[in-house]
Each structure stands twice: as C-alpha cells, then as structure tokens.
Amino acid sequence: MSLGVLGVCYLAVGVAIALGAAVARRLSSAADAILLVGMWPLWAPLALARPAHGAGAADDPRERELLAALARAKDSPLASVLPDADNARVLAARLREAGVRLVDLDAVLARPDFDPAAAEQRAAELAARGAMTAAATAQRRVRTLGQLRALRERYRAELDEVHELIAQLVAQAELVRLQPSIAHASGELVRELVAQIEGLDDLFAAHASIESGDEAWRRPQEYEPMAGRSG
C-alpha cells in the first residue's frame, strides 16, 4: 500500500471519528474537529471521554494547546524525542485536571464565607470574649484558607510555566526545521516540559492533604454555630 493511500485512509478514519464525536456532542468547536481529524490517535480518546458538550463539560484550552504543540513538533526533527501517543494523552489529562482544580479553587475562594479577613476578625472576636475553643477553631480555619490561597497561586504559577514551555516547544520545532542538527540538543526542552507537567502530581498531593485536614472546605459551613455553643 502506497503512502498516499495510507494518508487517505488515516484522514478517512479521522473524519469518521470526528463525525461520530459531533453526533455525540463531544466537540466544543470547529478547532476540536480539525484536531480530531488530523490527530485522532492522540485526540480521540480524550474527546470521546468527555461529557457531552453543554452537559457541564469544561473545555480546557491547555489540553488542546499541549496536544497541538506535540502534533506540530512531530512533523519536525524533534519527533524522536517527543512522548508517544499514550504518554501524551496522560500528560494532557494531567494538565486538564490541574486547570479544572484551579477553576474550582477560584470559585471556592470567591465565596464570602471564605474571606480570610472576615475569618481573622471572627477569630479575634471570639478570643476577645473568652470563647477560646471556638477561637482556636476559627483560627484553624484562617490557616486553612491561607493554605488554599497559596495552593491556588502554585497552580497558577505551574500552569503559566507549562504554557511558556509549550510556546517554546512550538518555536523550537520551527527552528529545528531550519537547523535539524540541533534536534538532539532540543530534547532537553521536551524533558523539561514533561517534567513540569508530571510535577503537577505534587500539587495534587498537597491539595489532597489540605482537603483531608479540613474535609468540609467545599461546603459553605460557617463556624458561627460552634462559636455560639462555646461562647
């Protein structure tokens, strides 16, 4: 079978998968469809695993950005140092999860009952009237809010770094096209990008640690009832 026929078969499979995904409402945009046709070995498992669009699915551009950059780099001499399709999907899923968690943290920390200044004031009020047990609980809440805010900033910083590394990978791929001899040296950039995304597991672990220390952090539960019992 000639390369031309193989190419046509590849695209035909991509078109068929894209049509199926569209019918199942797994595509959020025309760009999704184009990526699915051209990169179906990478993109199809992720697109088809999502909830139907419009049914609460969150479309994270970071996932698309990573896979598009890897696909672009595969057409350059960098192809030999890139992660394979399975690993690329794992990396994209990890990046997507980090984006979802950041959105979640933004929403939680925007709630009035998660205002650190108000929590600090409440702890001071309880201490001033001698409700020391309640004050200690309120102060623990202040610390938890501080941890959550610090965690959010870490997510932002890590995702910003990933974004810049992806942008550099795209630029580096173009440079390597012009200077194929530097492809091997460019492998360090790929390893740095992969390590940066894999390092998100440390953030997930920190996130889990905070949640286990304060299992009610997602619920809009005030500490006023406890304060009333103590005071």
> From N to C, what is the helix and strand string?
HHHHHHHHHH
Amino-to-carboxy terminus distance: 83 Å
The count of domains is: 2
Approximate shape: elongated
Oligomeric state = single chain
- What's the tally of helices? 10
Average per-residue pLDDT, rounded, comes to: 76
Instruction: Please report the total strand number as a whole number.
Output: 0
**What percentage of residues falls in helices of 4 or more residues?**
over 70%
Major beta sheet summary: none
Taking pLDDT < 50 over at least 5 consecutive residues as the criterion, the unreliable ranges are 23-27, 49-58, 215-231
Q: Give the structural class.
A: mainly alpha
Please render the helix and strand layout as text.
Layout: H1 3-23, H2 30-38, H3 40-49, H4 61-74, H5 85-109, H6 116-128, H7 132-178, H8 187-198, H9 200-213, H10 224-230
Helix pairs in contact: 1-2, 1-3, 2-3, 3-5, 4-5, 4-7, 5-7, 6-7, 7-8, 7-9, 7-10
Question: Can you describe this structure?
Answer:
The protein is mainly alpha-helical and 231 residues long. The protein has two domains: 58 residues; 171 residues. It has ten helices and no strands. α5 runs antiparallel to α7 and α7 packs antiparallel against α8. The longest helix is centred in the last third of the chain and has 47 residues.
